[in-house]
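**Archive record**
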Amino acid sequence: MGTTRGISKPGSGGKVYWTRQRVIEGLQRFYVDFGETPVNCIVYARMIKSEVSPEHGTQRRRCYPSERSVFIHFRSMREAWEVAGLPQDRHKERWTAEEDAYILENWIKFSRKAIANKLRRTVGAVANRKMALGITERAGSGARHCDSERGLAE
C-alpha cells in the first residue's frame, strides 16, 4: 500500500493538503504571479512570506506551498520547477559539453540571441561562454547569422 506524503493542515483530521499535484499547481500559480522560478529555497521562502499576492491581493501562504512542502515531494527547487514545466534560472549552472559543442558548431550560423533561446541561457551568458571558448567575431569577417526557426529546431 502506498502512502500519501505531505503536510496536513491543523484541524484537517490528518488529511494531507499539499499533495504532489497541489504543490505543482501552487508553483505554477507562483510563476504566473511573480514571473520567477527561484532555485534558492531561502529566496522562495522570503517571497511567499509576504502578506499579499501582487496579482490577486490574497494572502500568499494560502496560494503557494511552503519550501518544506516542496521538499517533501522533490529533491530540489530546480527539480520541482522542472516537473511543473516552468523555465528555470540557469545562471549558476555549469556549462555542459553538449552546450559548448552547440555553440562551437552554430556560432556562425545563428545570432547569440537564437543560441541563447535554444540553450535556455541569457544572451550575455552565451557571449561570455563564446569568449571563454576562444571564439571571436572580427569586423569584416563575413560572418552571417541566419535565425531561421527550421535551423534551430534540429
Summary: The CA atoms of residues 112 and 123 lie 6 Å apart. Residues 20-34 form the longest helix (15 residues). The chain has two domains: 20-83, 97-152.
